[in-house]
Amino acid sequence: MEQLLEILEGLHPEVDFELADDLIDGKIFDSFDIVTLVAEINAEFDVAIPAEELIPENFNSAEAIWELIQRLDEE
Predict the structure, then answer these.
(1) What is the pTM of this model?
(2) Which site among 9, 55, 56, 71 is 20 to 30 Å from 30 CA-CA?
């Protein structure tokens, strides 16, 4: 999770990712942020995020993103 928080803070250092739960709904992340984040997750965790997983529920919080990474890593 620590690695993920570092990636997120690199995108938006002004956001407290441990508390934020509206990264998509609150328009903190835009489409470019998501593309960048998906690429960095792939590089850091060796996890490919398929298009059908690119839904707001999976990216609204650091916890949701971490759960997505763990779930995909197990598959």
Answers:
(1) 0.94
(2) 71
Give pLDDT tens digits for 39-52.
Answer: 999 999 999 999 99
Task: Look up the CATH number of the domain holding residue 12.
Answer: 1.10.1200.10
Residues with Cβ within 8 Å of 38's Cβ and at least 6 positions away in sequence, in order, are 49, 54
Provide the terminal-to-terminal Cα distance of the chain, rounded to the nearest Å: 19
Domain that includes residue 61, residue range: 2-74
Burial 15-39 (b: 16+ CB within 10 A, else e): bebeebeebbeeebbeeebbeebbe
pLDDT digits over 15-46, tens only? 999 999 999 999 999 999 999 999 999 999 99
Structural domains in the chain (count): 1
